[in-house]
Design a protein that fits this description.
Blueprint: E1 2-8, H1 13-24, E2 31-38, H2 42-51, E3 58-63, H3 72-81, E4 87-90, E5 95-97, H4 101-108, E6 113-117, E7 119-121, H5 124-127, E8 143-145, E9 151-154, H6 155-160, H7 174-184, E10 188-192, E11 197-199, H8 222-235, H9 253-257, E12 264-269, H10 272-285, E13 290-296, H11 304-311, H12 322-337, E14 342-346, E15 352-358
Parallel strand pairs: 1-2, 1-4, 2-3, 6-10, 7-11, 12-13
Antiparallel strand pairs: 4-9, 5-11, 6-9, 7-8, 13-15, 14-15
Helix pairs in contact: 7-8, 10-12
């Protein structure tokens, strides 16, 4: 038996169905799908529940963690721990499988090796074929890529290295880090040459987090930070993530609901000294409290009077943008509070940030 694991948040259900349909055409049906939904919108979760009624090989785990930052590593680790199969393949909702893929997996599976695969990228027009009747052999990718997150390995290998490193948030380097740590643990890497996987086109996510604040949390330079974390592991021949004692531990809905009853409430404007002091001095001082901070953009920040005073150097308080505050809080979460019970939200008007945490 083989487990195929997906980690997902807020992608369109049409591409998920296309991936499942390609799996339903497998010649060898010795597999299950473990689909981890990591905090999608409720309406999308309802759509997912309807879709999987047509695919009896799919087990859906709808985790109610929309208040947490996107963490593919944690979602996948949760799935790995729920697999009862000796071998696990990590997939992606954009993936289209050749009908002989599971036969290939069955032939390749070896406990002391892990296998990587090349991925053919379909263009926008070519991907439209996936929503009708098509033959896999007739699809024409415009390029192939080698590092893409797909890996076939034994469950033993995943557990031995303590899964994916849950430091990695948003996107970037979690796959390369896993591959390197498996090699450090003594598992041999092999690259399979079969053209058995195609990527359903979507617009690039790269750069969406760079310049502007949005309701969808993103932090500037995160891909570089993730890459640095991976390279440090690689340089030190790390096998198990240094600060990760457990894997796949998820905050329960009951615990998350505690954040609705904060014991400490703080409000402030986007004044740099106030925000910095709160994050670096006040926040770490709390114990056995649920702290809720609301940071609002001071109306004065956008006035002509403020801009003139700033220009001539007469402004006494230094204000910072809500995007800057967004990034400051998100980095504190990544580096210091990623395993805590917390919530983070940017209001629709993009002028208020709500951050709540149990300490």
């Amino acid at each position: 038996m083989l487990s195929i694991i997906y980690a997902h948040r807020n992608r369109d259900t049409a591409r998920i169905k296309a991936s499942f349909l390609s799996l339903s055409k497998q010649e060898l049906k010795n597999f299950e799908v473990i689909f981890i939904d990591y905090g999608s919108e409720p309406c999308l979760v309802r759509e997912l529940k309807e879709i999987i009624k047509d695919f009896n090989f799919v087990k859906l785990y709808p985790l109610q963690v929309s208040n947490l930052l996107w963490n593919k590593s944690k979602a996948l680790n949760f799935g790995i721990l729920r697999s009862s199969s000796p071998y696990i393949f990590i997939a992606d909702v954009d993936l289209i499988f050749h009908p002989d893929t599971t036969k290939l997996f069955n032939k390749l599976a070896v406990e002391k090796k892990f296998f990587l695969f090349k991925l053919g990228y379909l263009g926008s027009a070519e991907s439209q074929k996936l929503f009708g009747n098509y033959n896999f052999e007739d699809l024409k990718p415009y390029r192939y890529g080698e590092v893409n997150g797909m890996i076939l390995a034994s469950k033993k290998a995943y557990v031995e290295v303590n899964g994916l490193d849950e430091f990695f948030h948003f996107y970037g380097s979690e796959d390369e880090d896993l591959f390197a740590r498996m090699e450090n643990a003594g598992y041999k890497r092999e690259n399979d040459a079969a053209s058995f996987f195609y990527h359903n086109w979507h617009q690039s996510f790269a750069g969406s987090e760079e310049k502007f604040i949005t309701e969808n949390p993103r932090v500037k330079n995160i891909m570089r930070i993730n890459q640095r974390h991976y390279l440090i592991h690689k340089d030190k021949d790390i096998t198990r993530p240094l600060r990760q004692t457990e894997m796949g531990m998820i905050i329960s809905k009951k615990q998350s609901d505690l954040l609705e009853k904060p014991t400490v409430k703080i409000r402030m404007y986007n004044i740099q000294a106030h925000v910095e002091h709160f994050l670096r001095e006040e926040l770490p001082s709390y114990k056995d409290e649920i702290i809720k901070v609301e940071i609002n953009e001071d109306p004065y920040f956008q006035t002509l009077k403020y801009k003139v005073k700033k220009l001539i150097g007469r402004q006494t308080q230094t204000y910072i943008s809500m995007k800057k505050i967004n990034d400051m809080i998100l980095k504190e979460i990544l580096f210091s509070y990623r395993n805590h019970n917390y919530s983070f939200k940017v209001n629709e008007n993009l002028k208020t940030i709500l951050f709540c945490i149990q300490l």
